[in-house]
Amino acid sequence: NGIDLLELDAHLADADVDRRRLGLVDGAQVVGSVTRFDPVKRVDVLVRSLTILAPRLPRLALVLVGGGRDERRLRRLAADARLGDRVIFTGSLDDPARTYRVFDLYVATSRKEGLPLSLLEAMGARLAVVATDVPGHRDVVVHGETGLLVPPDDPTALADAIATLLADPERRRRMGEAGRRRVAEAFTISSMVEK
Prior knowledge:
40% of the residues lie in helices and 15% in strands. The chain is built from eight helices and six strands.
């Protein structure tokens, strides 16, 4: 499950996904997640956190990359919360890493996780992250250094962490660089083979 950072960098450099193509307005603050839409991934908690944040952050948008059996429920949840075009569903993509460069912040909300590849890719792409404090995420994210860990199933705590990092671009940049170093040191293919 190691990450090939050179390959990731090549995908990011060649990415044809940009903010306008996704329908994002200029100056949008973009929170993103690449995941399977399954109840264990708790993407609904992320959508609920957006309902808390939307009144305070008028340019906030959520980009959800993926698909799965929970998609219809998530779309209905976003529509019922009147989030409209603030939640963008891209569907499943052959190369979801192409989307990382449009995100300001990466969020992972699983209730349980193994080794989270998309979280590692996001960190490898120099994104600060917010993730639930569960095994798997806890093994990857260094709280306060590469991102923030929050209790699972808590949309208010998630919203607070997202707002904290969106308000501080320099902290996000430092966390993104620290995340890249962490992936390079511990989670590349070569470092994992060495171990």
